[in-house]
Amino acid sequence: MFNKKLAIVGASGAVGRVFLELLDEKYPGKKDLHLVASKRSAGNKMSCGDEEFVIQDIENFNFSNIDIAFFSAGAKTAEKYAPLAVSSGCTVIDNSSHFRTHEDKLLIVPEVNSKDLCNFESPGIISNPNCSTAQLVVALKPIHDLFLIKRVDVASYQSVSGTGKEGIDELIEQTKKFLNDEDIHPKVYGAQIAFNVIPAGNILENNYTDEEIKMSFETNKILDKDIKLSATCSRVPVLYGHSLAVHVETEKEINLDLLIQKIKDQKGLDFFDSQDFTSPNAVNHAEGKNPVSVGRVRLDLWDKNRVNFWVVADNLRKGAALNSLQILDELL
To answer: CB 3.0–4.6 Å: which of 36, 88, 122, 303 could bond 9 by disulfide?
Structure first.
């Protein structure tokens, strides 16, 4: 029996549901588990394996009986309730953006920088990175280990589940209306998402989106502060799984055979031969899968210090719930 007392804050959301799936996979059997959400969801029941749990209202929840709380309920909820949980003796692993930029808070992807957890003092707060960043840095690590990355240019193709259940519902609803030749009125996104590609995130004053800035900052904090990264992030009409087209420039000349072997050896990565142009893809190799998948690995046509590749991963698993549980494994 898993003997830690766990809470999932935001249990009724898209990531919360994946937490329950993964907890049953990783720690089968009875668990001391508490599901927490807003007043709107309180009283509803959810299952983890054969057990059923009643969702509790976060406003009245007592964190003093909890060892680890997984927060996946947005930045405002984390800002308000995560410090309260810590003051009650509970360690928080937070999936929101709120604490990622705080210098005194760790930002962890276990395959990349688990050693940073040596500096962690419990109880405290550990942050998960943005879902696109999580899969990116796992794919970048073998390149950086071998050849030292100077610059990364990324184009992302992010599924609507990155926006939560609301994004999923909007794509499904708009798709039905489009096929029935009905009028579409966007609610979650600023433009129609069905059969369309739009910017991911909110446009900032510098004309980048916050998704693009997150990826740059977080890669520096997790992998190497000297890496220059520029991103263009898009939202695409895919339900689950983010895809990235990545171009990397390195300090040293790249040996492709050595790199591919390193990718194959990297924990958390699946390698796909570049001759198979359908792989990896979001539907077949990301959705519902734990590893980050890498394919289309090819040297630049003009420069031996540059390489291009394609990366896919389940944004609700490696991009959120799975990464949190891997952090828990490291803490244990």
So the answer is: 36
247 labelled catalytic: no
**Cα–Cα distance for residue pair 134/315, rounded to 1 Å:** 9
Joined together, the tokens standing for residue 13 give 């959301």
Mean pLDDT of the chain: 94
**Which amino acid does the sequence have at 298?**
R
Task: Tell the CATH superfamily of the 2-129+320-331 domain.
Answer: NAD(P)-binding Rossmann-like Domain (3.40.50.720)
Question: How many Cα atoms occupy the beta-carbon half-sphere of 315 within 13 Å?
Answer: 25
Strand 198-199 and strand 228-235: pairing? antiparallel
Domain boundaries, the chain: 2-129+320-331, 132-315
State yes or no: is 242 an active-site residue. yes
Interior angle at CA 322, CA 321 and CA 324, nearest 5 = 65
The CA distance from 48 to 214, in Å, is 32
For 201-240, write each residue's pLDDT tens digit: 999 999 999 999 999 999 999 999 999 999 999 999 999 9
Between helices 131-147 and 210-222, what is the axis angle to 10°?
Answer: 40
Contact 311, 288 (CB under 8 A): no
Query: Which one of the listed residues 98, 131, 233, 285 is annotated catalytic?
Result: 131
- State how far the Cα of 91 lies from the Cα of 69, in Å rounded to an integer: 6
Give the C-alpha separation, 323 to 3, whole Å: 20
- Of 34, 98, 242, 285, which is the active-site residue? 242
Q: Check for a shared fold between 2-129+320-331 and 132-315.
A: no
DSSP type of residue 115: G
- pTM for this entry: 0.94
